[in-house]
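Name: Family 1 glycosylhydrolase
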Amino acid sequence: MTHTPIPFPEGFLWGASTAAHQIEGNNTNSDWWVKEHSTGTHIQEPSLDACDSYHRWRDDMDVLSELGFTDYRFSIEWARIEPAEGQFSRAELAHYRRMVEGALVRGLRPMVTLHHFTVPQWFEARGGWTAEGAVDLFARYVAACAPVIGEDVRHVCTINEPNMIAVMAGQAKAGDIGFPPAGLPTPDEETTHAVIAAHRAAVKEVKAINPEIQAGWTIANQVYQALPGAEDVAAAYRHPREDIFIEAARDDDWIGVQSYTRTEIGSEGPIPWPDDVERTLTQWEYYPAAVGHALRHTAKVLGNGDVPMIVTENGIATADDTRRVDYYKGALDAVAACLEDGLNIEGYLAWSALDNYEWGSYKPTFGLIAWDRETFVRTAKPSAVWLGGLGRTRELPRIDG
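Structure predicted for Family 1 glycosylhydrolase:
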């Protein structure tokens, strides 16, 4: 076995990602705050203060910069910027602009996500994405974000994981909580079309703010692997849950590829993971190679090179940081192999910069950086030191043999 490092392509993004609601704390105007304080849900605990990153974002960026990362993907919170319909907070816009400027001062290129799962309470009360005028309301919010993204922000993500938004909408309509043991439920078709329309409207507004901004969105790749004879089943299963959203990015500047594990498909559909496989804290199969399969599938759908790809999320929920390092080694080996094969990959951003609120619980620890629940002091894990150090060598590990 030999180790042959692969140099980063020119301008390669090397960083970590977060989402506002999962780290900021006290996002009281969002729909998720209501869910967290309601009964009869799967939610184990409320987010409350979270990591207090609303106030401590400088600490977060300091750690990332010092470790060697060059990019930071974070989201801005619609519920803070427009807490009541049609009323925009200049103070919150200024807050997020300070984050952009703070990243630049620390040598971090900011990638700004405009929507990462949460919406204002008033938007949800109107009926959410499928309500009349919802697309226009989202476009108006994006236009209002001009003071944040208008200058010095090269990459903007309109909507994070729209396929998961549609899946969760389908679950809500069906009155279901929780997911099946393998695969994803069927996405709500009306929501699917609504978020695609919202994305296209948002891209238009972003380009109106600054045509130099590179706009795209990110897709949750489940890495559907067909067992022999089940290729047609896998394709039929995959398309409404993933491929339709990938295809919607055909005219974008880039597409975000997000992957954590795989789903095997047999003649009857998804096959649950065997009891004897290694699992993460989210009970997913430990499968570092997933990101490579996701990149190759995305390139196949879009035509390799036509739309640049960025790994915008990839990581593992574990309490054993040595397994986190091993997972990243396997994942980066898969990314390096894709680059060697000529795939157009422009960056890799780990999930997540911080242990955070994983949509109902703090127990699944994805973070490169730990924090104390009492003092909020940040501590970089060994995995963070190792992964950030690759930003200094500007080389991806590649294992041959």
